[in-house]
């Protein structure tokens, strides 16, 4: 484990770019460990490793990026999940993020009833930052990443995620057919974020209905961290629902000013994440990065509910969910309520119908009501209840192709 912490993405890139640019790191279905990657063979000992079926990478000399694809579970179908374009300080951070996010995708697809498995991919720039990537450079990065995804033969299907756009997905599409969230003009569903925001908002409404018998958020105080694609759209919904106060924070001043201009008497800008966490409110909605709920933040919290879009909000999911439950803070599992984005994208493969999305928005409300009632009946937290539901759903294999994902992983691994 010391080894991981010491290694940077730049070190890893240099070690592999010449000798072994394409690699298969580990997986429960195949035991191919390339000698060039023995430094990482201990990944199976990482706490975030959960019997992942396959982890692939490419050190891409032309674009100067590391490409990673994490495949957690393909029982229900091809692994589906977003592509994150992001810099990491250490390989430990990168692998931990990929392992956690891909597992969360398995759970998310399973509780949503999708016939998809769970995966995630990462593009990590080496020697430059995401912001430095010009439109021309992005074309090279995403085209080469598309070739990498093609080499997995469909075991993993990409989608939009942090710092990626429908245009980037279109570039990936130029190299393979294993990508969703492509622009509407080429038959895709475009930006999924407004649907994700609507799903989170419906879960808020379901929660106040079950817990307080209310039909809207009137008279409540809400805090939102992160006012990007999802948080910005969520802010509009909660303002329209009659909140008395909306506390917001973001790293980008302009985004906060825009939202304040919508309802100056209701919206209050707070200077930092820490000040937002300590602000007394009814609902805290994390809509920025992951791991916002950790040992440091939990003692600061002064909210009654945590209902937000960010992936992997809990640093240590079971332990921190239990801690919140004991404190009387109701935490709605992120993978349960931020599913609308992936539903929007995943269903593209079957043709895109807006009516499907409307049905799913109703379903997320009903599912949240059922989750809260059932967890209350059993005396467990909604997180525990959702994990039980996900584990059950993950045992149900794809009705037509029960073993195909594992066969595809085997094929792709044997070619490395
Ligand atoms: P985004 O990049 O559009 O917005 C994120 C916002 O958070 C940005 O405005 C950024 O400045 C801000 N931010 C980052 N760090 C911050 C900090 N420490 N304090 C305050 N603000 C900070 O991303 P998004 O698409 O809106 O997604 C938000 C979260 O929801 C992410 O965790 C994402 O993985 C998750 N999610 C998104 C979707 C979707 O459909 N977009 C679906 C499921 C989950």
Structure characterization notes:
There is one protein chain. The model has no long low-confidence stretch (mean pLDDT 93). 43% of the residues lie in helices and 14% in strands. It is built from 15 helices and 13 strands. The chain has helices at 2-6, 9-17, 91-111, 135-150, 166-173, 193-212, 229-240, 253-262, 273-277, 317-327, 334-337, 340-346, 354-378, 382-394, 404-414, and strands spanning 22-26, 54-60, 65-73, 79-80, 83-85, 117-125, 156-157, 221-225, 245-249, 267-269, 283-286, 305-306, 330-331. Helix 8 (253-262) links the parallel strand 9 (245-249) and strand 10. It is an alpha/beta fold. Strands 1, 2, 3, 4, 5, 6 and 7 form a seven-stranded mixed β-sheet that branches. A six-stranded parallel β-sheet has the order 10-9-8-11-12-13, with helices on both faces. The protein folds into two domains: 2-180 and 409-414, 3-Layer(aba) Sandwich (Rossmann fold); 193-380, Rossmann fold.
Characteristic terms for this protein:
alpha/beta; binds nicotinamide-adenine-dinucleotide; 43% helix; 15 helices; 6-stranded parallel sheet; globular; Rossmann fold
